[in-house]
Amino acid sequence: MGHKVDFVCRACRYEERDLGLGRGRMPVPYLRLFSCDNCHSVGSTWVDDATTPRCSLCYHDGIQLLADDAETSVCPKCGERGAFIHHRDQIWE
Ligand SMILES: [Zn+2]
Ligand SMILES: [Zn+2]
């Protein structure tokens, strides 16, 4: 089961809330966290093993996938370090 994640940057107050992560009922595709240098966003996007993952916001295919258990990441807006808040009790399917 996947869970929900928020990204929060205290420096510039950029945040993305209610991101899905992980697997639902089907093993593939599954949701992974990414950082996009094209539209300067973090988010989660569907990934399978056959196609190039794309930004869920601007559809750019040069995104950087982040570890599923990432606790922090560089904020794409301001370059400071933002935090991922994992809500492992908030399950999506
Ligand atoms: Zn920031
Ligand atoms: Zn993008």
Strand numbers in spatial order across the main sheet? 2-1-7-6
The tally of helices reads 0
Order of helices and strands: EEEEEEE
Mean model confidence by pLDDT: 96
Percentage of residues in strands: over 45%
Summarize the topology.
Layout: E1 2-8, E2 15-21, E3 30-36, E4 41-47, E5 64-65, E6 72-74, E7 81-92
Antiparallel strand pairs: 1-2, 1-7, 3-4, 3-5, 6-7
The protein binds zinc ion (2 copies).
Describe this structure in words.
- There is one protein chain.
- With 93 residues, the chain is an all-beta fold.
- The protein has one domain (2-92).
- 0% of the residues lie in helices and 48% in strands.
- The protein has no helices and 7 strands.
- The strands form 2 sheets. Strands 2-1-7-6 form a 4-stranded antiparallel beta sheet, with no helix packed on it. A 3-stranded antiparallel beta sheet has the order 4-3-5, with no helix packed on it.
- It is globular and about 35 Å long.
- The relative contact order is 0.32.
- The model has no long low-confidence stretch (mean pLDDT 96).
- The site of one zinc ion has 9 residues, from loops.
